[in-house]
């Protein structure tokens, strides 16, 4: 079997891009060929770092790009598309060639637009791989056949299970190891909850004098400005980082304050693997990972006051926080690259 993961992006800072790369990596040695196709740029660079065969495709809406994609598709039995545009090109190639199986990936809980949903419904799309049961339920509500919807959780790169000692990492990053560091990892988008966490931190800073707020992710001028309007300069933004495992290792707690759109944020699994406590909003996908009081803490979406209370609690009861983190680390051990690859291969074979 020759399989290609296809994403219509060049940037590689999002969870979807990273999970597509990890899937291609995990299939190496399990299929005859496991390749990765993108629009080049950071995606190509990352693929080559992982030792993956990479193909750069323009994926523009023109005849030349379509023919280029069809020529590429001839060399594969399975195309697994990770974005809508990649799915369009894959379906066109399958229609032309007749033998190429196409699978779609759905990693967010935003409803599909009317002009886009047909691509997921038609028979040429053999199955839709959903990153959570929440995403699966949403697609079923939009009329997709439940038989076509398959849930496969994302995987965790093994480097997150090998996190360095906190004090050592803090020293190397120039951070004060005596402070209680609260971290949000995610690109600066309105629904990622940066301002909600900023409001929570503003509320708790008068009680928690040694608290430190850190953001890591591709910055947006608007969201960064909103955070500054709440906190002034009383936070640190590290921008996009390739060493996320070290940033997580330097923290005491990771917060996911997203308000919508998340399938399951990969960073929640990664923080669990690093042995860090997680506080997350009560979105469906988050609830599939974080069991309140067992593997982390949950707060009502958008409620910065309760989020602040959760953080103060963890800072006040470090033994409880450590127990939650230990439970989370054990829970995260199931999300291996091999387990995900085996599940994906069973879906390819059955459809």
Strand content: 15-25%
Secondary structure: helix percent: 40-55%
Write down the secondary-structure element order: EHEHEHEHEHEHEHEHEHEHEHEHEHHH
Number of helices: 15
**Residue windows where pLDDT falls under 50 for at least 5 positions:** none
Q: What's the CATH topology label of the largest domain?
A: Rossmann fold
Full CATH superfamily name of the largest domain: Glycogen Phosphorylase B
Q: What is the highest CATH level, the class of the largest domain?
A: Alpha Beta
Shape estimate: elongated
The second-level CATH architecture of the largest domain is: 3-Layer(aba) Sandwich
Estimated radius of gyration: 21 Å
Class by alpha and beta content:
alpha/beta
Largest sheet: 7 strands, parallel
Arithmetic mean pLDDT: 93
What does this structure look like?
By secondary structure, this protein is α/β, with parallel strands linked by helices. It folds into two domains: 2-155 and 336-350, Glycogen Phosphorylase B (Rossmann fold, 3-Layer(aba) Sandwich), CATH 3.40.50.2000; 158-332, Rossmann fold (3-Layer(aba) Sandwich). Helix content is 44%, strand content 17%. The protein is built from 15 helices and 13 strands. Strands 3-2-1-4-5-6-7 form a seven-stranded parallel beta sheet, sandwiched between helices. Helix 2 links the parallel strand 2 and strand 3 (54-56). Helix 3 (63-73) packs across helix 4 and helix 11 (266-273) packs across helix 14 (318-332). The mean pLDDT is 93.
């Amino acid at each position: 079997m020759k399989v290609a993961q296809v994403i219509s992006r060049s940037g590689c800072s999002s969870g979807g891009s990273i999970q597509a790369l990890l899937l291609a990596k995990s299939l190496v040695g399990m299929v005859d060929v496991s390749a990765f196709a993108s629009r080049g740029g950071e995606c190509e660079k990352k693929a080559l770092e992982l030792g993956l065969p990479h193909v750069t495709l323009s994926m523009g809406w023109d005849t030349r790009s379509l023919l280029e994609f069809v020529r590429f598709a001839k060399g594969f039995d399975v195309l697994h598309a990770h974005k809508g545009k990649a799915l369009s090109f894959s379906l066109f190639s399958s229609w032309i060639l007749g033998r190429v199986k196409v699978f779609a990936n759905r990693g967010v809980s935003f409803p599909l637009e009317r002009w886009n949903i047909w691509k997921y419904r038609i028979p040429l799309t053999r199955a839709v791989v959903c990153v959570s049961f929440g995403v699966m339920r949403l697609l079923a509500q939009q009329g997709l056949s439940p038989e076509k919807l398959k849930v496969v959780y994302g995987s965790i790169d093994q480097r997150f299970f090998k996190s360095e000692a906190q004090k050592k990492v803090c020293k190397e990053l120039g951070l004060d190891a005596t402070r209680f560091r609260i971290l949000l990892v995610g690109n600066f988008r309105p629904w990622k909850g940066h301002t909600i966490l900023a409001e929570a931190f503003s509320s708790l800073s008068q009680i928690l004098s040694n608290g430190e707020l850190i953001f890591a992710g591709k910055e947006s001028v608007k969201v960064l400005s909103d955070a500054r309007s709440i906190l002034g300069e009383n936070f640190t933004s590290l921008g996009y980082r390739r060493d996320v495992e070290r940033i997580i290792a330097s923290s005491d707690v990771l917060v996911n304050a997203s308000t919508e759109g998340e399938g399951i944020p990969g960073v929640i699994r990664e923080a669990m693997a690093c042995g860090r406590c997680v506080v997350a909003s009560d979105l469906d996908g988050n609830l599939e990972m974080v069991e309140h009081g067992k593997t982390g803490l949950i707060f009502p979406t958008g409620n910065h006051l309760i989020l602040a209370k959760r953080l103060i609690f963890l800072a006040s009861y470090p033994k409880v926080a450590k127990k939650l983190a230990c439970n989370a680390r054990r829970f995260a051990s199931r999300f291996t690259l091999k387990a995900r690859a085996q599940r994906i291969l069973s879906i390819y074979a059955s459809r």
